[in-house]
C-alpha cells in the first residue's frame, strides 16, 4: 500500500507540473461544453425562401403568410419567374423555392385540388431534407385549414374529421440541448479517459523512465493502479465540472440519483483508462498513441447512439455497440 501511495504521489506531481494536462482536463471540457451544444444544432431554422407567385390571389397570399410566420423560413425575395428564383439558389441567396402556379385559387375552389412546386437546394443535404419536410408539413396544414373552412359552406357536405395531436413526455419543447449536452459530456470523458492514459505511459517510454520503473520493487498491479487512478480522479473532476456547466448554462439537472451517475462514471472511466493502457502497450511514440486513440474514440463516439440512433444502425453495427462503453454511458 505504501508503494502504491508513493507512485500516486509521483503521478500527481507529474500531472500538476504539466500545465497542458490541467488545461486539457479542466479548462478545455468547460469551454467545449459551452460552445459545442450551440454548434451541434439539429434544428434547422432561418431557411432562406424565394417565392414565385403567379396567382396573386387571396389563398396564395394566405399561404405565403403562413409559411413565413412558421419561424422556420426567411422570405428573401419574390421572384417573377422560376428561372430568376434558381439564380437566387445558385448565388446562395435562397435555399428553397416555392412556385405557386396561375389559377391556384380557382383550381382549388372549382376542382378541389391544385398543384405547387417546391425546389430545394440539396447541396446541404440536412438543411434540404428538413427544409423540404417543414414546407410539406405546412402545406398539409394549410390544406387541412381550407378543408375545415369549406365544411361550413352549404354546397359542401359536412365530413367527419380526425384531429391528431401529440405531446412529448420527455423534452416536451424538443430542445436539442437536453440530449446534446449529456452526450457531449460523455464524449469529453471518452477523450480524457483513453487519450490521457495512453500518452502518459508512452511518455515514460520516450524519456526512458519506464526502465527505472521496471527495475523498481513494485508489482504490476501497483504500477497499473498508480498510472490509472490519477486520471480516474481527474475524469471524475471533469464529470463534476460538466454537471455544473449543464446546470449553470443549460439548466439541466438530473432527476435520478447523482450517486448512481458517479458510480457508472467510475466504471466508465476505468474501462476507457484500460483501453488507453492497452494502446500504450503497443505504441512506441506519443504520435502513434494519439492516432490509435483517436481511431478508437471516433469508433466509440459515432457508434454510441448520440449522432445516429442505435435502432437505425445495421445489424453488424448493433453488435459493436454491445461492447461500446460510450453507448451505455450515454444511455445513463
Describe the structure.
There is one protein chain. This protein has 332 residues and is an alpha/beta fold. It is 65% helix and 7% strand. It contains 13 helices and four strands. The chain has helices spanning 2-17, 19-39, 58-68, 82-90, 104-110, 125-151, 177-207, 209-214, 220-250, 258-282, 286-302, 315-321, 325-331, and strands spanning 47-53, 73-78, 96-100, 117-120. It has a four-stranded mixed β-sheet with strand order 2-1-3-4, with helices on both faces. The radius of gyration is 29 Å and the shape is elongated. The chain starts with a helix and ends with a helix.
Distance between the termini: 33 Å
> Helix coverage percent of residues?
55-70%
- Counted beta strands: 4
* Low-confidence runs: none
Major pleated sheet:
4 strands, mixed
Structural class: alpha/beta
As a percent range, the share of strand residues is: 5-15%
Helices, by number, come to 13
Q: Strand arrangement, largest sheet?
A: 2-1-3-4
Order of helices and strands: HHEHEHEHEHHHHHHHH
Shape: elongated
Q: C-alpha Rg, in Å?
A: 29 Å
- Mean pLDDT equals 82
Describe the SSE topology.
Elements: H1 2-17, H2 19-39, E1 47-53, H3 58-68, E2 73-78, H4 82-90, E3 96-100, H5 104-110, E4 117-120, H6 125-151, H7 177-207, H8 209-214, H9 220-250, H10 258-282, H11 286-302, H12 315-321, H13 325-331
Parallel strand pairs: 1-2, 1-3
Antiparallel strand pairs: 3-4
Features:
four-stranded mixed beta sheet; 332 residues; 13 helices; alpha/beta
